[in-house]
Amino acid sequence: MERNRGESRICEWFATVLVAAVFSYLLLEVKAHDGQAMTAEEKSKIRDQILEMFDHAYNSYMTNAYPADELMPLSCRGRVRGLEPNRGDVDDSLGKFSLTLIDTLDTLVQLLNKLEEFESGVKKILSDVRLDNDIVVSVFETNIRVLGGLLGAHVMADVLKQRGERMQWYRDELLYMAKELGYRLLPAFNTTSGLPYPRINLRYGIVNPLSRTGTESDTCTACAGTLILEFAALSRLSGERIFEEQARKAMDVLWEKRQKGSDLVGTVINIHNGDWVRRAGFLVSVTCFGEVENLRFAFTAVPQQLRIKAQLASDNRENSSIYNILFLMTDSGVGAGIDSYYEYLMKAYILLGDKVYLERFNTHYSAIMKYISQPPLLLNVHMHNPTVNVRSWMDSLLAFFPGLQVLRGDLKPAIETHEMLYQVTKQHNFLPEAFTTEFRVHWGQHPLRPEFAESTYFLYKATGDPYYLKVGQSIVEKLNAHARVPCGFAAVQDVRTGTHEDRMDSFFLAEMFKYLYLLFSEKSQLPIDIDDYIFTTEAHLLPVSLSTSQPPCQTNNTDPQALEDDLFSYSCPSAQTLFPNNPTFAKTIRDGYKYLTGVGRAQQASPVRGIELPLHDTGLEPVEFLKSMGISLTPLTELISASQGSASQDSHKGFFKLKLVAEVTQSPEHEEVVPLIVQLISPPFLGQTVLTAGPAKFGLDLTKQEHGVKGRIVKSSPYTACGSIENPVALQGHIALALRGDCMFAVKARRLQEAGAIGVIFIDHREGSSSAETPLFQMVGDGEPTDDISIPLVFLFSKEGAMLTNALQEQNNVDVLLLPKEKQLGKEKPEKLNIKFRLANDGDLAEGEMESTTIQLVLEPTESPTEMNTGTQETCSFPQDEPESGP
Ligand code: DMJ
């Protein structure tokens, strides 16, 4: 629409349209479409309630946790990294820099007008916080939470100072801190690609031998693509361009590396060469019958897993077999791993006035709407084959997306997806971290994430529909009812049980209350003009005036021809434009999704995406397509001639036999598989027979058992353990042997555990497989939580398995030890004690001993080392030269 305008003018105009669009609807008298409109008193009551909740959370942190990074609301003390058990990646947000206070500071002014608390909070930060701790932090989290927090607080400090009310002493100290932090993060960009390292040591950077980081090769797309707002604001406020330049370069790389066919990006990228990282995508059970006709596949989201069903050429089900296939793929979605990259493209345009960001956003957005958006669902797809869904579940982070769609002006899908999310919260109180396309819990945790509140706020602003106030009210009530504890608010460990977790992440204070409070506030009730600011992904507010404060960095233009010239490409249309004179439009859209999860819903089939090969979208031939997904196809002609020596009449083009090439043994690259062993310890083996075994990603972790797990082996009946177990009495207290195949490892494990087995040894069903030829792999679960499986599980290839079953046949009773290879019994070199014997001489023996008829021998150390068989020398293993570990 307005492509010829100057960049800053576009931005200015955009901001004006945005403000007008978002608020114009509020001026209309909108009736309540799903119940009564809220009166001013009701809204004010809820606002007070939110304020009270904020105080409860904030005071709990300040009183019981500060200066620690976060509050542990159940223990009512601070979480100090290193003093609490390591939680893995999630701890990388904690840099011993009073994270929660920094993340919360600007909220105190921007919304709540708590000026005294703000001023004292700033003073605390200036006196207490160090940014040079010897600690490894996430570059992404430190940027959005700490750098964003410092900048947001600086902007507010400046506003208050300008107004002459408070902070007269302030001399940009927070900005200096932000700059110091910016410089501490900069070494992360020292890669050949320009994509930043995911982690950095605040004191030692990356390359320093003391840094304990710098070995990473991958980062997530959002991690590399969510820096531009904070870094550009830092550049423009401090006058130092380097920050914006580096962040922009990272954005440029991601754009360049997008999959050009689909215009989508993947979730994980190699920071050195910019390649998308293929990961274990999903496990699929494939039933292969004889011939497969036309290669017609349906990827069906059945509850626990995806299945590929091949259409049968005939009813001949002989020789059918089930294979578990692990697909290595690059998936693409709008949730975890990617989310804020898209958000920052759109918002970088709004904040910086550079239309290149908007053009890129528009290109990606079209792709998202083409492939990922299946209203009301947003489903991850295979980046290279985007018509293929890769998951049957969604993650809660994607709940921000309807809010972004509002900014884009695309209200209809925003309303649809938001409604779907609301239905999920109605069912489970909160959004579980992951939920299936049938709205069942996939991963039940809820760490008090604010994304759903964020979208609710944006939708209310765009539609003025009081329905969204009711949604907001339900969020408030649920937080009070299910997350509130005497010392703050506690994350929910599992929405199904409502159990709490001892964590209150800083984003809860930084974001949740901000969006909720704004939702119930009139513009006039806020201490600042909220329309002059843009929300960062952590809800820190940066002034849109930055777009004109300095010229943007030099940039390449994207091809304008590539953009769709639609109404929304350069604007942010209002509900008025979209649905003129129709104030009930949002309700009309929502109504279609009212009974998605609950009673009264018509039985819906799982979403199915049928694919008829060849895929026109990719232009790939069927064989290439499946190969790209880890399946190879062998034309029947070849198979039959190989097996029968002649071609069959049935074999013709289009008939293939599925051949397994990628199975669970093809574990993701870089995955470390700790080799285990099954050591036969009962006579006559006495530890000398040691079989190399693979571990499982679930069940008892043998590496943590000092002495392994010992037990007698008993074959399961049925041997596959897929049906109900017929010999529970025999299995009770013993280690079960079960044949691989027919159902998932986790299913077998559960059955055998229930039957009383204390461990399971799975034996490969493929004849002739051995650990000498096939790398070890880790058995994976069935997509459901596997916490209920607590017994140890190991896997033997069939050659090793045969040794065990032979032993059982010969000996009846065979005791084994399951343990990590490095703890193999008797592997330690025996201490050599060289002993020689001689007949006793006179004087060697005590009085009376001489009279004995026994021949007396005397032990004496030998000088010459004579090798003796102690019976504990290193035992043979099968096979002799097994690989150390598999990929
Ligand atoms: C926040 O830190 C930010 O919103 C980020 O972009 C992703 N998620 C968390 C909250 O869920």
Concise summary:
The protein is an alpha+beta fold and 887 residues long.
Give structural notes:
The protein has 887 residues and is α+β, with helices and mostly antiparallel strands. Strands 32-31-30-29-33-27-28-36 form an 8-stranded mixed beta sheet. Strands 7, 8, 9, 10, 24, 25 and 26 form a 7-stranded mixed beta sheet that branches. The chain has a 3-stranded antiparallel beta sheet with strand order 15-16-17, with no helix packed on it. A hairpin with a 4-residue loop joins strand 1 and strand 2. It is globular and about 90 Å long. The structure holds 1-deoxymannojirimycin (DMJ).
Shape: globular
Order of strands, main sheet, comes to: 32-31-30-29-33-27-28-36
Let me know the number of strands. 36
Mean pLDDT: 78
How would the blueprint of this fold be written?
Blueprint: H1 7-27, H2 40-64, E1 70-72, E2 77-79, H3 99-110, H4 115-128, E3 136-138, H5 139-163, H6 173-185, E4 199-201, E5 218-220, H7 221-225, H8 228-238, H9 242-257, E6 268-270, E7 279-288, E8 292-301, E9 306-312, E10 321-329, E11 331-332, H10 339-352, H11 355-372, E12 373-374, E13 377-378, E14 381-382, E15 393-395, H12 401-408, H13 411-428, E16 434-436, E17 441-443, H14 451-463, H15 467-482, E18 484-485, E19 488-489, E20 491-494, E21 499-501, H16 506-519, E22 533-535, E23 541-543, H17 546-549, H18 575-578, H19 585-591, E24 608-612, H20 622-628, E25 631-635, H21 636-644, E26 655-660, E27 676-680, E28 689-693, E29 709-715, H22 728-731, E30 735-739, H23 745-754, E31 759-763, E32 793-796, H24 798-811, E33 815-820, E34 835-839, E35 857-861, E36 877-878
Parallel strand pairs: 7-9, 28-36, 29-30, 30-31, 31-32
Antiparallel strand pairs: 1-2, 3-4, 5-6, 7-10, 8-9, 8-24, 8-26, 11-14, 12-13, 15-16, 16-17, 18-19, 20-21, 22-23, 25-26, 27-28, 27-33, 29-33, 34-35
Helix pairs in contact: 1-10, 1-14, 2-15, 2-16, 3-4, 3-5, 3-16, 5-6, 5-8, 6-8, 8-9, 10-11, 12-13, 12-14, 13-14, 14-15, 14-16
This protein binds 1-deoxymannojirimycin (DMJ).
